[in-house]
């Protein structure tokens, strides 16, 4: 019985601390700007992936192109959704780290680096999915 009470106490404290960390991180303007831009890029990636999946009409699509060898990886059309999921995971993971680092006010530069990394990785993934589009439709 005591173990159960401790478990509920720990989960309550974790939720309370996570909520305060979220609102602490969300109070900064640069966090909102970087996060909104990264989420916008990720939504574009999801839309392009959905467009490629619907438009191809086949189960197999070209997923990778190499300049030396040409198309070198065919796969199931469902695998195109790995790219936007990866972008979302990067955004979420970096924001969680920023949330729990916001308690230390001296670590603002690390939060800038994490948020810029999330944004740049989604821009690179946007370029990658655009190249998959060009491979399959041009």
Verbal overview:
This protein has 138 residues and is mainly alpha-helical. The chain has one domain (2-137). 75% of the residues lie in helices and 10% in strands. It is built from four helices and two strands. It has a two-stranded antiparallel ribbon with strand order 1-2. The termini are far apart. The mean pLDDT is 85.
Residue share in β-strands = 5-15%
Q: What profile does the largest beta sheet have?
A: 2 strands, antiparallel
**How much helicity do the residues have?**
over 70%
- Structural shape: elongated
Q: End-to-end span in angstroms? A: 65 Å
**Strand arrangement, largest sheet?**
1-2
Q: What oligomeric arrangement do these chains adopt?
A: single chain
What class do helices, strands and sheet pairing give? mainly alpha
Low-confidence stretches: none
Q: Into how many domains do the coordinates divide?
A: 1
Number of distinct beta strands: 2
Our Rg estimate from Cα atoms comes to 20 Å
Count of helical stretches: 4
Average pLDDT works out at 85
* Helix/strand order: HHEEHH
Short structural summary:
The protein is mainly α. 75% of the residues lie in helices and 10% in strands. The protein has helices at residues 2-26, 29-56, 82-101, 108-137, and strands at 60-66, 70-76.
